[in-house]
Every structure is written in structure tokens, then in C-alpha cells.
């Protein structure tokens, strides 16, 4: 009986507020929510228009693209063809550059995540001389723009034989990705309850076991968010690749830019190449969307 009375007491104010609202107020509230959803839907559709246009253009013949706009395909679906993708696979420059992009992006992402996680844990929970000063130095590196370091590092890589190689591009991305990675993960790891780590230490866990079996599972959302950010940044990069790569090590962004410069009307290769270059990072983002949202929400709550 007590529980029933308590529940009535809790729901009564809500029902009273609803009863006091006029039908016009409730109608405005429902319409307002519907208008917001409709507005967001329209914004989302407009945001997808370039992607849809690029996809349709990649499925049309060059003569059709030169004659009419991509939206004409809705009236003439017979224009759709996969011939452009077949030509793309036969283009050694594009396929080779796509493989170079994978060889650059995957190691650069993995190295930043692994090294950043280890350094973030060390700055958060390990005691060593000058820890706070070292961390301030890492934070200070966040304000260094990439453009400032291009020429000095290019000269350094030229002297040690790394200029124009895939390894040189990877090292550059790792060097500029680590400050943000350490800053992000250190702040996330520092919010882990100290009692949890102390209990693991009392059970005989060393630092390596503590990091791999306690900290890493708890920091999964933040690590996933960092991995997505790093992957998208490296995959879509053109400035660093344009400076540090040569013909045999160019990623897809530079290869497409070269195709535009040399073959301005080579749209049957450019359209599918640009779509593939765009859809792969989108697929990666949507594949890890849940972990990304969890990491963002965890950081917001903390």
C-alpha cells in the first residue's frame, strides 16, 4: 500500500501539469518537435547531395556526364553503368595510390593509438621525475602548426634518406598525431577510479597487466574515438603527402590531383576514384560509430 501511494504521489504532479496545459499548447509542442525533425531531415538530405551526385556521376558514361547533369539519371536509369569502375581498376596509378594510402593510414593510426595509450597511462598513473613538466611540453606541441614543420622535416628526411618514402609520411603523421593522442587519453585515463587500480595492484597486477586488463578495456571508447580521428586525418591528408611523397609513394589524394592536372577531362577515372576515396573513411566511421559516440559522451560527462 505504501509503494502504491508513493507512486501516485510521484505521478500526480506530472498529470496535473499536463492537465493544466491547453490543447493549443500541446498542439504547438507536437508541431514544434515535428518541425525540428523535418528541418534536420532536410539538412541531412542537403548534406548528402554531393555524395549522391558523385556516386551517380561515377556510374555514368563520360559522354552522358558531358551532356547533362547527374540528376538526369532519375529519368534515364539506363545510363547507369560500371564501365568507369572497370577503367579505374585498369588504371595502375590510381590502384597503386589507393594501396599506398592504406599502407600509410593503417600504420600511422595503429602507432598513434598504441604509443598514445602507453604514454597517456604513464602520465596519468605512473610517477617519474618531471612528469608534469613533460606533459606540459606535450600540450605545448599541440599549438605547433603542420605548415611550420614541413620544410625543416623535409630537409631532415632528405639527409637520412626518408624523403619520398611511405615510411617518412608515416613518421610525420605519427609525430604530429601523438600530442593530441597523449593529451586526450591521459585526461580520460586520469578519470578512472583510483580504488579500482589499487585493488588490481593488491591482487598482484603489474603495470603492464594493469594497463592491458584494466585501463585498456575501460578506455575503449576514447581509444576508438582517437583511432577514428587519426584515420580520417591521415586518409584525407593531401598537404603532407604532396610534400613528402614521390610518384611511387603517392596516396590517392595526390594521385587524383595529378589526374586532374594532367587529364582535365578524365572524368571516367576521377569520379569513381574520388567516390572510393570518400566512401572508405565513411565506412570506417559508421562501423565504429557506437564506440565514437560512447567516447564523446564519456568525455562530456567527465
Could you give the topology of this structure?
Elements: H1 2-20, H2 23-58, H3 62-67, H4 83-90, H5 92-125, H6 131-140, H7 146-160, H8 166-189, H9 194-202, H10 207-218, H11 220-235, H12 239-244, H13 252-262, H14 267-287, H15 289-301
Structure in a nutshell:
This protein has 302 residues and is mainly alpha-helical. The chain is built from 15 helices and no strands. The radius of gyration is 27 Å and the shape is globular.
How does this structure look, described?
The chain has 302 residues and is mainly alpha-helical. It has 15 helices and no strands. The protein has helices spanning 2-20, 23-58, 62-67, 83-90, 92-125, 131-140, 146-160, 166-189, 194-202, 207-218, 220-235, 239-244, 252-262, 267-287, 289-301. Helix 5 (92-125) packs antiparallel against helix 13 (252-262), helix 8 packs antiparallel against helix 11 (220-235) and helix 11 (220-235) packs across helix 15.
Amino acid at each position: 500500500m505504501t509503494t502504491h501511494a508513493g507512486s501516485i504521489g510521484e505521478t500526480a504532479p506530472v498529470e496535473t501539469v499536463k492537465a493544466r496545459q491547453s490543447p493549443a499548447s500541446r498542439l504547438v509542442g507536437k508541431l514544434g518537435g515535428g518541425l525540428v525533425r523535418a528541418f534536420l531531415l532536410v539538412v541531412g538530405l542537403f548534406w548528402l547531395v554531393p555524395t549522391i551526385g558523385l556516386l551517380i556521376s561515377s556510374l555514368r558514361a563520360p559522354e552522358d556526364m558531358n551532356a547533362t547533369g547527374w540528376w538526369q539519371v532519375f529519368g534515364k536509369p539506363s545510363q547507369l553503368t560500371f564501365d568507369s569502375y572497370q577503367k579505374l581498376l585498369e588504371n595502375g596509378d590510381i590502384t597503386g595510390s589507393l594501396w599506398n594510402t592504406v599502407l600509410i593510414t593503417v600504420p600511422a593510426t595503429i602507432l598513434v593509438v598504441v604509443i598514445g595509450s602507453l604514454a597517456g597511462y604513464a602520465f596519468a598513473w605512473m610517477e617519474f621525475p618531471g612528469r608534469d613538466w613533460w606533459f606540459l611540453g606535450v600540450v605545448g606541441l599541440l599549438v605547433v602548426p603542420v605548415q611550420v614543420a614541413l620544410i625543416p622535416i623535409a630537409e631532415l628526411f632528405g639527409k637520412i634518406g626518408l624523403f619520398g618514402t611511405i615510411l617518412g609520411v608515416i613518421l610525420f603523421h605519427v609525430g604530429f598525431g601523438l600530442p593530441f593522442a597523449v593529451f586526450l587519453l591521459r585526461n580520460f585515463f586520469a578519470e578512472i577510479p583510483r580504488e579500482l587500480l589499487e585493488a588490481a595492484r593488491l591482487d598482484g597486477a603489474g603495470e603492464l597487466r594493469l594497463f592491458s586488463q584494466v585501463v585498456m578495456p575501460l578506455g575503449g571508447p576514447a581509444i576508438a574515438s582517437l583511432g577514428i580521428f587519426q584515420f580520417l586525418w591521415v586518409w584525407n591528408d593531401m598537404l603532407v603527402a604532396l610534400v613528402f611523397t614521390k610518384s611511387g609513394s603517392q596516396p590517392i589524394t595526390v594521385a587524383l590531383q595529378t589526374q586532374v592536372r594532367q587529364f582535365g577531362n578524365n572524368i571516367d577515372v576521377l569520379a569513381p576514384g574520388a567516390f572510393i576515396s570518400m566512401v572508405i573513411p565513411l565506412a570506417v566511421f559508421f562501423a565504429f560509430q557506437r564506440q565514437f559516440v560512447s567516447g564523446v559522451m564519456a568525455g562530456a560527462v567527465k
